[in-house]
From TrEMBL:
N-terminal signal peptide: none
Principal subcellular localization: membrane
PROSITE patterns: BCCT (PS01303)
Species of the source: Moheibacter stercoris
Record protein name field: Choline/glycine/proline betaine transport protein
Keywords linked to the UniProt accession: Cell membrane, Membrane, Transmembrane, Transmembrane helix, Transport
Membrane topology: Multi-pass membrane protein
Similarity field: Belongs to the BCCT transporter (TC 2.A.15) family.
Record localization: Cell membrane
InterPro entries in UniProt: BCCT_CS (IPR018093), BCCT_transptr (IPR000060)
Xref: Pfam families: BCCT
Residues spanning the membrane: 12-33, 53-72, 92-112, 141-164, 191-210, 230-252, 264-284, 321-339, 351-376, 408-436, 448-470, 476-497
PANTHER family hit by this protein: HIGH-AFFINITY CHOLINE TRANSPORT PROTEIN, HIGH-AFFINITY CHOLINE TRANSPORT PROTEIN-RELATED
């Protein structure tokens, strides 16, 4: 007998199989037919950017406005978890991890390149050097600031809220629970996770590909490697992905957290090095000026589509729209990771930290590196850095040549890029495995190794074939449908937060106020019973009618004429006291209905319920105030409730200041 060992796996076939087919298919097309694939995907991307750019503009704007609203709203103190939850990580570790996952290699790749490209762009050639420098900083702030982090924040907040508050799986499908309910467990949920897995894989692959090229270029400039070639890129990928796999399988609490802490300390050291040895006074002044410029132009930048400046629109599509698409395409990956590490934070704390702290650091970083590069270009390098603006792989290292200790700074920069590479890759593997397993616990380590292997093989395949640009276009295309998905996240959040707040703030029913322990057995029977229309009708014809009749007689003894009215559609009874000058006093009880939760229908610990609609007697009044369920009132308690409202009515009409409000010949009555 041959014993066959079954491989243990937590992978979800409904998510993994279609995802791998699509991922491998696109990568093979990009590798075998790189020019054709890039041309086709670029055509689609350009069509979207040209004709549907407003979708990105409005989506990102709505994200920012919604998050600012949540900060100041009553929902801000809701905790991402149980009400007594505590954060899993220290504030420093938490910020370090979300920062490393959110920006990573991009900070090193674009910190000098983007400001220099804006500064040297031909569309701004007519402006003065000072204006070009200011605009370069402003646009870089815009692309790496609050708007970028708002995109990540929406996904991260939605995932963390529904995962830790509703105790659903850490999966994008969970964010649709208020809209789809249990359908998230089926094909709809699988479709959402397939989309998230593909988008995450494409985003990480392209970013890691560019990171490998920059590391190779830096090592070549420093003389460590003789050239930038595919052989050396293979070696770099093998070494770094191996380290990433070791970090990933050690878990978030160990490898990812430790590397992220090292990372944030390292970039702070490099930042101080450039700030102190560069044009310090100029950098501090330009940062201060840049913050003010950003704040004063915030709304103009947010809504500006350059429709009145056609000469700027190609630049607008290639930068702002591309960035919004890029951040959106990365948001499933970054959002999942941020959510994973954010349990126990309040919504207000989460939003403020995610929006403000990384944004402020980005501004400092981009000011120090970008403004230093522009200052050196004008005052030292005689335009040499501007000429390298189109070569971002080498630009950072050529920039460092203008500072003392160039070789040490360059090696340190490469070390930071490597750490960024590893932290992006290991957190990416963790996130992809989480999506592919529907956040299953205790996944075997070979799955994490498998994602790392797939990442490295496909990234190298595309690097060798020149298909990385095609995959980047595919990543940007996926951002359009995902921006719509993110808008639906907001709808789900609004619905869920409203229910959440009302659940914890809901007071006892009005009907419980006069309770004593005298009729507790009868009340228990009523509480667990669900009425049909006939039982409510019987309640109105007996308890309500008898209460109103006794009141009518007592009113008559006090010289007050009250009448009892009956109506059929909906069935209701009311006691009314007519006045000539002010509105009539009305207290009525009508038959109303509500839908019962599907969960309650299937609950074994309650009496059987035949359908999901229950009827109940609801009070109403001679004005627009909302009534309430009175089915638990006894006859005397209902009489007491009517008198309570009548006392309120008399008190209001007796006050002179209410005269204009209550004087009317039109008595509002339920129609």
């Amino acid at each position: 007998m041959i014993k066959i060992t079954k491989i243990k796996t937590t992978l979800s076939k409904g998510v993994v199989i279609p995802s791998l087919i699509f991922i491998i298919g696109i990568c093979l097309l990009s590798a075998i037919y790189p020019k054709l694939t890039e041309s086709l995907l670029n055509t689609v991307k350009n069509f979207i950017f040209l004709n549907l750019n407003y979708v990105y503009i409005w989506s990102v704007t709505i994200f920012v406005i919604f998050l600012i609203y949540l900060i100041f709203s009553k929902y801000g103190n809701i905790r991402l978890g149980r009400n007594n939850s505590k954060p899993d990580y220290s504030f420093f570790s938490w910020i370090s991890m979300l920062f490393a996952a959110g920006m990573g290699i991009g900070l090193m790749y674009f910190s000098v390149a983007e400001p220099m490209q804006h500064y040297s762009n031909e569309v701004f050639a007519g402006n003065s050097i000072v204006q070009r420098a200011k605009d370069a900083q402003l646009y870089t702030f815009f692309h790496w600031g609050i708007h970028a982090w708002a995109i990540y924040c929406i996904v991260g907040l939605s995932l963390a809220y529904f995962t830790y508050r509703y105790r659903l799986p850490l999966s994008l499908r969970s964010c649709f629970y208020p809209l789809l309910k249990d359908k998230i467990k089926g094909k709809w949920g699988n479709t959402i996770d397939v989309f998230a897995l593909c988008s995450t894989f494409f985003g990480i692959t392209t970013t890691l590909g560019f990171g490998v090229v920059q590391i190779n270029s830096g090592l070549e400039i420093l003389g460590v490697l003789p050239t930038s070639s595919f052989i050396y890129q293979v070696l770099i990928v093998v070494v770094l992905v191996s380290i990433s796999i070791i970090s990933a399988i050690s878990g978030v609490d160990k490898g990812v957290r430790i590397l992220s802490n090292i990372n944030i300390i390292s970039v702070a050291m490099l930042l101080l090095f450039v700030l102190i040895l560069g044009p310090t006074i100029y950098l501090i002044g330009s940062f201060t000026d840049g913050i003010g410029n950003y704040i004063s132009n915030f709304f103009n930048l947010t809504f500006n589509t350059h429709v009145y400046e056609p000469e700027l629109q190609p630049w607008f599509y290639d930068w702002t729209i591309l960035y919004w698409a890029w951040w959106i395409s990365w948001s499933p990956y970054v959002g999942l990771f941020i959510a994973k590490i954010s349990k126990g934070r309040t919504i207000r704390e989460f939003i403020v930290a995610v929006l403000i702290i990384p944004t402020l650091f980005n501004f400092i970083w981009m000011s120090v590196f970008g403004n230093s590069a522009i200052w050196f270009d004008v005052n030292v390098a005689d335009g040499a850095l501007s000429q390298l603006a189109s070569n971002p792989d080498a630009l950072m290292f050529r920039f460092l040549e203008n500072l003392p200790l160039t070789n040490i700074a360059s090696f340190f920069t490469i070390a930071i890029i490597i750490i960024f590479f590893v932290t992006s890759a290991d957190s990416g593997m963790f996130v992809m495995n989480s999506i592919a397993t529907k956040n299953a616990k205790n996944s075997p380590k070979w799955q994490t190794v498998g994602w790392g292997f797939l990442l490295s093989v496909l990234a190298l395949l595309l690097l060798n074939a020149g298909g990385l640009a095609a995959l980047q276009s595919m990543t940007l295309i996926t951002a359009l449908p995902f921006s719509i998905i993110m808008l639906l996240f907001i709808v789900s959040l609004v619905k869920a937060l409203s229910i959440d707040k009302s659940y914890y703030e809901r007071d006892f029913s009005v009907s419980t106020i006069p309770w004593s322990g005298a009729s507790w057995r009868e009340r228990l029977q009523q509480i667990v019973s669900f009425n049909d229309k006939e039982s409510v009708s019987a309640f109105i014809k007996t308890t309500v009618y008898e209460s109103f009749s006794d009141l009518q007689k007592e009113f008559a003894k006090n010289g007050i004429a009250a009448k009892i009215n009956f109506y059929e559609n909906p069935e209701r009874a009311e006691i009314e006291i007519t006045y000539d000058v002010v509105n009539n006093f009305i207290y009525g009880v009508m038959s109303d209905s509500k839908i019962i939760s599907d969960y309650l229908l299937n609950e074994d610990n309650l009496p059987d319920i035949e359908n999901n609609r229950t009827f109940y007697p609801k009070s109403y009044f001679g004005d627009d105030r909302e009534g309430y369920d009175v089915q638990l009132f006894t006859k005397n308690e209902l009489i007491s409730d009517v008198l309570k409202h009548y006392e309120r009515f008399i008190e209001i009409i007796s006050e002179e200041k209410n005269e204009m409000f209550i004087s009317s010949n039109i008595n509002r009555r339920l129609k």
